[in-house]
Amino acid sequence: MGVDSSVEMLRAARERCPTASFQLADLSSWQPGRRFGVILANAVLQWVPGHGALLPALLGCLEPGGSLAVQMPDNLGEPAHQRMREVASSGPWAARLAGVVRPEGSRLDPAGYYRLLSGAGAAVDLWRTTYYHLLPGGIPDLIRWFLGTGLRPYLALLAEEERAAFLASYRSALEGAYLELPGGALLLPFPRLFLVATLR
């Protein structure tokens, strides 16, 4: 069973996996009506607030001995996100974007996830891996990378001409934030946090 809050994502998933079942639901209030051996949340939980309540609730949807496996970006402290928040907080759009600017503390640190999940009765494995993505086009490629993820909530609240101004300010803010390789390419460090919580 696949679960998503986006009709578009579910449509694409059904095309790719026609034999699987899918459900339109908000994960923070999801009630599956059954228990699972494995719940996999791959690049999902960074979009869902309230991890302190959410993760124990997901554990509650597991069979005895079942596992919750999570991968999520752990990059809010990286320059791309820091500059994004700075641009959002300092431009003429600051008041409208105030609710979008997510502080780094909006997610738990690894110790926080360990305490939360082990306290809910799970054996926990945690690790963090940094992937390095080659972006041949440099900063413009980096901006394209984040258009569908981190930049999306900001741009959704702006008019078309404001979006162009926001992205121009963001591009200026990123200058010098990453080491450029010969020819203008850059390596984008992208840390990701992994955890597997297995009910004892």
What keywords describe this structure?
8 helices, 26% strand, 6 strands, alpha/beta, Rossmann fold, four-stranded mixed β-sheet
Written overview of the protein:
The protein is an alpha/beta fold and 200 residues long. The protein has a single domain, classed as Rossmann fold (3-Layer(aba) Sandwich). Helices cover 36% and strands 26% of the residues. It contains eight helices and six strands; from the N terminus they run βαββαβαααβαααβ. The protein has helices at residues 7-16, 51-59, 79-90, 94-97, 110-119, 139-147, 152-155, 160-174, and strands at 2-4, 22-24, 36-42, 62-73, 122-135, 186-199. It has a four-stranded mixed sheet with strand order 3-4-6-5. Strands 1-2 form a two-stranded parallel sheet. The mean pLDDT is 93.
**Mean pLDDT over the residues:** 93
Estimate the strand proportion: 25-35%
The CATH homologous superfamily: Vaccinia Virus protein VP39
Q: What low-confidence regions span 5 or more consecutive residues with pLDDT below 50? A: none
How large is the radius of gyration? 19 Å
- Named at the architecture level, the CATH assignment is 3-Layer(aba) Sandwich
Strand order of the largest sheet: 3-4-6-5
Q: Based on Cα principal axes, name the global outline.
A: globular
Main sheet makeup: 4 strands, mixed
What's the CATH class, please?
Answer: Alpha Beta
Name the structural class: alpha/beta
CATH topology: Rossmann fold
Q: How many strand segments?
A: 6
C-alpha end-to-end distance: 24 Å
Query: How much helix is in the residues?
Result: 25-40%
The figure for the number of domains is: 1
The succession of helices and strands, N to C, reads EHEEHEHHHEHHHE
